[in-house]
Design brief:
Elements (H helix, E strand, L loop, with lengths): L1 H27 L25 H23 L7 H27 L7 H21 L8 E4 L2 E4 L4 H19 L5 H18 L6 H19 L8 H19 L2 H7 L1 H20 L9 H7 L4 H25 L2
Antiparallel strand pairs: 1-2
């Protein structure tokens, strides 16, 4: 876990050092958040808060990964088995951040919560995820890359693994995006999940994925300094789409896809609440929740934002512990 913490500290320091200058720059270009019309009333006061702060996390993540990998290689004088993996990881995360950045830019330019159309955003996410999965296919390890495993149970999905991997990446990217509705919620949950995935990876042989998980954790921790309640900056789609993609790629590279489903349970519940709400309203005309995603439902029940965030963080910690225990028992 040494290199996990080295990457954590590097990413944390990068985000903290860049934070104030980035906030001033976002204010200068008037990158203010537009609040959706159906948002809870108390969110109106957040209008104009700088957004696109995800550039902080993505920068911290990429610098943390590449700098620590370079340092590790220089100290050990050992080359990575698959040297392109970290570069592909960083490039894919940056591509998802780029999609989010375009969406945030359009929202700011139009002055209302109307960025990319859902189908446009989904198409671009699928395209990037497909390119990444194509890389996995070209560098596949027979009997390993396409297999799902939990303890002694193992199932080789064959060619079906690849479309499922695309779905996993795109779904998680959007799930984190949906969870990004309260100050510190998505960043805190991502910090918990990335730390859990790093701990799970450490149960096996050392891997560069440790640096990926550590840098992601450090970037989220640093960002929380500016994003905790009351938030001074929002991550925007720039951050949320990239965070979800990064978590998915870490799980895929580390071959802990099934355990990641448990670790990331809160994100899946947030997404499921939206799906159920839409299905219920379109089929019966009734809503299951007062508002979706689920965190807004609790807000409308009268809970303060900080209490809802803390409740979801605790749920995230519980699911992370469950995932780690499953991995430890089957290690």
């Amino acid at each position: 876990m040494l290199w996990f913490w080295v990457a954590f500290l590097v990413a944390l320091i990068v985000v903290l050092l860049m934070g104030e200058p980035t906030l001033r720059a976002l204010v200068a270009i008037k990158a203010g958040q537009a609040i959706r019309e159906d948002a809870p009333e108390r969110h109106r006061t957040k209008a104009g808060t700088p957004t696109m702060g995800g550039v902080l996390m993505v920068t911290g993540l990429v610098v943390g990964v590449l700098l620590t990998l370079g340092g590790q290689a220089a100290l050990s004088q050992q080359a990575l088995t698959r040297t392109w993996d970290p570069a592909v990881f960083c490039t894919t995360v940056l591509a998802f951040a780029g999609i989010g950045l375009l969406d945030d830019y359009l929202i700011i330019r139009r002055g209302k919560n109307l960025g990319l159309k859902a189908r446009q955003k989904l198409f671009m996410q699928c395209a990037v995820a497909t390119v990444f999965v194509g890389y996995l296919a070209l560098n596949a390890e027979p009997g390993i890359t396409t297999a799902l495993q939990a303890g002694e149970w193992r199932l080789d999905m064959g060619i079906w693994y690849y479309p499922l991997a695309v779905l996993f990446i795109v779904a998680l990217s959007n799930a984190v995006n949906l969870a990004d509705g309260l100050d510190g919620l998505a960043a805190g949950l991502s910090l918990i999940a990335a730390s859990a995935l790093g701990s799970i990876v450490s149960l096996r042989e050392g891997s560069w994925v440790l640096q990926g998980a550590g840098a992601l954790s450090g970037a989220c921790a640093g960002f929380l300094n500016f994003n905790r309640y009351p938030a001074r900056v929002f991550m925007g789609d720039t951050g949320s789409l990239a965070l979800g993609a990064a978590l998915a790629l870490i799980a895929l590279f580390a071959k802990v896809e099934l355990i990641a489903l448990v670790v990331l349970l809160v994100f899946w519940i947030e997404m499921l609440s939206v799906i159920l709400q839409v299905i219920s309203f379109q089929t019966t005309g009734k809503r299951i929740f007062r508002m979706s995603p689920l965190h807004h439902h609790f807000e409308l029940l009268g809970m303060h934002e900080t209490r809802v965030v803390m409740m979801f963080w605790i749920a995230g910690i519980i699911s992370a512990i469950m995932g780690y225990v499953i991995a430890w028992v089957n290690a």
